[in-house]
Amino acid sequence: MTGPGSKAGVNRQVMVVRRAKGVPTPDCFQIVDSPVPQCPAGGVLLETLCAAVDPAMRGWLSEERNYMTVSDGEVMRAHGVGRVLESQDERWVPGDLAYGWLGWQRYAAVASSALLWPVDETVAPAPVWLSVLGLNGLTAWIGLNLLGRPVRGETIVVSAAAGGVGGLVGQLAAHRGLRAVGIAGGASKTELARTRLGFHVAVDYKAAAGDLGRELTRLLPDGVDIFFDNTAGPIADAVFPVLNGGARIVQCGTVAVPDWTTLPTGPRRERDILVKRLSWHGLVVFDHMARFEEAFADLKDLYRSGVLTARHDVLRGLDMAPGALGRLYDGTNNGRLMIDVGL
Ligand SMILES: NC(=O)c1ccc[n+]([C@@H]2O[C@H](COP(=O)([O-])OP(=O)(O)OC[C@H]3O[C@@H](n4cnc5c(N)ncnc54)[C@H](OP(=O)(O)O)[C@@H]3O)[C@@H](O)[C@H]2O)c1
């Protein structure tokens, strides 16, 4: 029998077999069962407990080469939390939990450089280290605090507000005394944003359709000081006109743009940037590793004290992985999307 901490059974892996134009479909992947690997020399063998499903994966699998392309025939790259089974690195011992590049696979035989930080289950259970205490939390914290430069009483607008990152930006912003306005798709997500995720106001961009700009002008007569943008596209087009002088735009993601091989067209904003003295910052969270310790300390305190709540959308088993990415783009995910691998 295969149980936690044991090495029996097979190593189920999700391999990349073809590239995608746009959102990766299930036929981009193949599930393969192979023998459980040996612990590599100087490295670590882990049993993966949970693995992330991230929008960035679309770029890694696109036909266009990306700065983090995953090649055909490789295990799909992913962050995950795993339990150390064997170690040839003195920094890790069997039983430790670690966060790192484990991939979509049951057992990960990795160089120790793939392990990014230890996971402490006395602080929070393993899945929370993929959300509040993982990439989502760090991205929200760094984007808001370092690039957004918030001042108490200011107004922030967040797109994809009910998602893994957006929902944490709302909670952090409310805690910092900002007036937080969320934009999300559908009545249940806007309701969630208002009642659970710290947003004072939430706008359903799907219901507003072409009137989103007018709706924002009506709701925000005093304008917007920070725009935390996860989507780009038509939502960003609607937010630009309500930005105040000196506003900061945190470009965290571009989920609304299906493909960058042909540049999307839209309003030109250079004049707004000039006249309103806007600052438009690209965010790549791993550029800010020097601030991770400070971010972690704050995120842990806020999680322990109940200020930040984790919302997870968990897919049961690696067999669900090939269809997982589509959920981020049709909006059917409800919170941090991840795979419970230990099944
Ligand atoms: N820069 C970095 O270092 C970094 C790190 C991590 C994540 N990110 C970015 O953060 C963003 C959020 O990531 P996440 O993991 O938390 O995902 P998420 O927000 O939980 O899921 C993606 C959400 O995007 C929305 N969406 C999808 N297609 C859309 C469209 N055409 N127009 C408007 N909204 C659309 C959907 O919400 P609705 O149902 O509301 O439409 C969907 O639930 C992504 O852009 C991701 O790339 C950036």
From TrEMBL:
Gene3D superfamilies xref list: Medium-chain alcohol dehydrogenases, catalytic domain, NAD(P)-binding Rossmann-like Domain
Oxidoreductase N-terminal domain segment(s): 12-113
Family matches, as InterPro entries: ADH-like_C, ADH_N_2, GroES-like_sf, MDR_fam, NAD(P)-bd_dom_sf
Oxidoreductase is among the record's keywords: yes
A GO molecular-function annotation: oxidoreductase activity, acting on the CH-CH group of donors, NAD or NADP as acceptor
Tree of life domain: Bacteria
This protein's UniProt keywords: Oxidoreductase
Every Alcohol dehydrogenase-like C-terminal domain range: 164-296
Matches recorded under PANTHER family: ALCOHOL DEHYDROGENASE, ZINC-CONTAINING (AFU_ORTHOLOGUE AFUA_7G04530), PROSTAGLANDIN REDUCTASE
Protein name: Enoyl reductase (ER) domain-containing protein
Organism: Sphingobium wenxiniae (strain DSM 21828 / CGMCC 1.7748 / JZ-1)
